[in-house]
Amino acid sequence: MKNDLIIRRLKFAQDYTQLLADENYQLVDMNMVEPFNIDDKRHHSSTIIFERNEQLFSIRSDWTRSLLNYSENYHLSQRFFGYFGPVVRNYETFHQAGVELYRPTDEEILSSIDMHLSFVTERYSEKFHSIVVNDDTLLDLYIDKYALDSGIRNLVHEKNLSELRKQLGQTHPLYILLSAKVSDQMDLVNAEFGDSEIMRFIDRLKQALGGYGMKFILDLSFRSPQSYYNGFYFQAFLDHDYPLLSGGEYNSSAFGIAVNLSNGGLL
């Protein structure tokens, strides 16, 4: 690894953790070796597990699960946490930074997303190209409204438009939505479910981020690679193939944002 990359990464860690401390996030620095929890394996199949003294342990593969387990075990009163440190996946080490918010309000979620975007744009003079958002409950609304079979969900996630057209017909609102340009999906979903709680939140987010000049894309076929997200989630991209910021709701009452330092284009 080149010296300048190591220095940039360490400088990022200092600047980012200082930002979080200034914003009253509790910084954490936990051991990479932790007691093994079966949920971790379920959510992260690449988790490395080993045994010592008849006790199973794992090497941290994701900060979200580690912090969630830590918070549930110790019943912490603090609601906002921040971290920077390594994770190991498939025998490779990655450095990850981010925050976890427990029991946040919509305003706190919006504020945290904005804090991350402004940190990157102001501190590093970078410009975000696009942000992609979704919430699986939007697809549930279509399935319920039109009494669709649950198998439609897999076709949507697979972007199998030919089979969707065969099963729904080309005039069905869901097929029209998914066959349209993703830039048009926001208006189409708003026309049907604009009064829903999630669309009101997504509209607020779009308005709040209008000053960044990036594309705002709602895509009902977009899924997070992390299976524990169960609500709103997003990815924000610089002019790069992989997202720099990823995050979303999980565990019904928590929200996390992770900074991709490996290939997100910042370092």
UniProtKB/TrEMBL annotation:
<dbReference type="InterPro" id="IPR045864">
    <property type="entry name" value="aa-tRNA-synth_II/BPL/LPL"/>
</dbReference>
<protein>
    <submittedName>
        <fullName>ATP phosphoribosyltransferase regulatory subunit</fullName>
    </submittedName>
</protein>
<dbReference type="GO" id="GO:0016757">
    <property type="term" value="F:glycosyltransferase activity"/>
</dbReference>
<keyword id="KW-0808">Transferase</keyword>
<dbReference type="InterPro" id="IPR041715">
    <property type="entry name" value="HisRS-like_core"/>
</dbReference>
<keyword id="KW-0328">Glycosyltransferase</keyword>
<dbReference type="Pfam" id="PF13393">
    <property type="entry name" value="tRNA-synt_His"/>
</dbReference>
<feature type="domain" description="Class II Histidinyl-tRNA synthetase (HisRS)-like catalytic core">
    <location>
        <begin position="18"/>
        <end position="252"/>
    </location>
</feature>
